[in-house]
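Bit of a strange request maybe. I'm writing a small parser for structure token strings and I need a real example to test against, not something I typed by hand. Could someone generate the tokens for this chain?
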Amino acid sequence: MVRRMIVAANWKMHKTLGEAVAFVRDFLAGPPEDGTVEVVICPPFTALADVGRVLGDGAVALGAQDVFWETEGAYTGAVSPLMLRDAGCRYVIVGHSERRQYFGETDTTVNRKVQAALGQGLTPIICVGEQLAQREAGITMQVIGRQMEAALAGLTPAQIAGLVVAYEPVWAIGTGRTASEADAQEAARFLRQVVARLAGEEAAGRIRIQYGGSVTPANAVGLMSQPDIDGALVGGASLKVESFRSIVAAARQGAAAKRGKGEG
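Reply from user aminoacidic:
Good idea to test on real output. This should exercise your parser:
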């Protein structure tokens, strides 16, 4: 089954309104997208509306970095999936390790956010990943398998098939360390097997699995050429137009390599 590559820029807590809009205009002024790769830009909440207006209904999609699980109510500081959709979002990152580390996100709240996002027509990008101590203890698959099962609880096979999952080893995020191509592929394949067990082979074949964690133009082609890796969730390297553009180009190369091998 051919899965369309998806590369998402997670700007985290970076860029003012002016910087965000300037980036997007510069990026859109580059070579037009050929449809091989779906590109998503996830600015901070403050820039969503302005960036969304620049992107419009074009090929590059708008995404948010987090969401609350209620549509509206007395939740000071929270942003609902309805509000994100109203701002033009198509995607939302859910369960990033930084949300878990700094804001008390749990497997249970991740699932609530996934269901709420789907209820408003948003596609969640669900993050899973192990800490360094867990990898060294040899329990990576147990950890990411548990996170995956919890995130998908209560969803139908059709809903699961349309999701995006980002495998992001916590020890590789913002550290300059990257999982080897073999380790990233092993984790992605395992996650696909979890989906097959929970939702069937069709859903497992359709769900898209990204790699995230110190993705750069230098390592992107190798990572995205792996048969079970369908793109990248990019942090620091997405803050500069040229490096992000290079990673999108790497995704095209990865897709071409897989087509040549009859994979994807």
